Amino acid sequence: MAEQKKKPAAKIEQLRPLAEGLNLTVKVVSSKMIMPRGRGDGNQGRQMRLAECLVGDETGIVVFTARNDQGLL
């Protein structure tokens, strides 16, 4: 398997709408679990867990919505 070069970490100030494939190194300022909800595809089996997190670096702070295991701190 070919090795992929790791992209350097982007800063919050570099974020743009619909940007993809970015690596961010941020500090979690706060995290709050929000109500679990059913999946959008109609499958009521496993509910999605959501956490609203405030994350940032030296250039800014943004709200990040963590899904399922992403919200485990």
TrEMBL record:
<feature type="domain" description="Single-stranded DNA binding protein Ssb-like OB fold">
    <location>
        <begin position="15"/>
        <end position="70"/>
    </location>
</feature>
<dbReference type="InterPro" id="IPR012340">
    <property type="entry name" value="NA-bd_OB-fold"/>
</dbReference>
<protein>
    <submittedName>
        <fullName>Nucleic acid-binding, OB-fold-like protein</fullName>
    </submittedName>
</protein>
<dbReference type="Pfam" id="PF21473">
    <property type="entry name" value="OB_Ssb-like"/>
</dbReference>
<dbReference type="InterPro" id="IPR048970">
    <property type="entry name" value="OB_Ssb-like"/>
</dbReference>
